[in-house]
């Protein structure tokens, strides 16, 4: 399937609505009251949209794409952004802008971390034999878990 066709079928707006339905079903069937959401790459856009509402309690974006400064301005929930030093989709300059916006929102806990020496997708696309890559991915995964432990209860 061509990427353009896939992207059209998987627009962030549709994924947000699908996610809301899944979260509602989980809450009604399990009694779950708190939800954290993690978005990798284009999923970052989906999760940042969820963080603008009361659907989730916390968000983590890992090497996000399509996320804008305007998106972050509208966030209502604690959000961590874990980015790569070498990333054309979310370059460090953009990540610093996101951090600046979060610093002006005392009502929203925010955290931005730029991982040195890694590229977009490093948390999911690394070679097991590359110890530095594995360490960096594991650190990001632990940061994500720590964020959820802190805010999803």
UniProtKB/TrEMBL annotation:
InterPro entries recorded: AB_hydrolase_fold, Dienelactn_hydro
Tree of life domain: Eukaryota
Domain Dienelactone hydrolase residues, every copy: 8-150
Pfam families: DLH
Molecular function per GO: hydrolase activity
Stored PANTHER family: DIENELACTONE HYDROLASE (PTHR17630), DIENELACTONE HYDROLASE DOMAIN-CONTAINING PROTEIN (PTHR17630:SF104)
Protein name: Dienelactone hydrolase domain-containing protein
Species of origin: Linum tenue
């Amino acid at each position: 399937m061509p990427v353009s066709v896939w992207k059209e079928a998987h627009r962030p707006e549709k994924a947000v609505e699908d996610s809301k339905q899944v979260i509602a079903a989980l809450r009604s069937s399990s009694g779950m009251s708190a939800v954290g959401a993690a978005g990798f790459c284009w999923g970052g856009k989906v999760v940042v949209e969820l963080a603008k509402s009361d659907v989730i309690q916390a968000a983590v974006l890992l090497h996000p794409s399509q996320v804008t400064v305007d998106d972050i301005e509208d966030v209502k929930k604690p959000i961590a952004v874990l980015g790569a030093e070498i990333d054309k989709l979310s370059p460090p300059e953009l990540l610093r802008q996101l951090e600046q916006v979060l610093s002006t929102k005392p009502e929203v806990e925010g955290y931005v971390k730029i991982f040195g020496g890694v590229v977009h997708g490093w948390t999911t696309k690394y070679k097991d034999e590359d110890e530095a890559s594995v360490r960096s991915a594991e650190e990001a995964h632990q940061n994500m878990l720590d964020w959820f432990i802190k805010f999803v209860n």
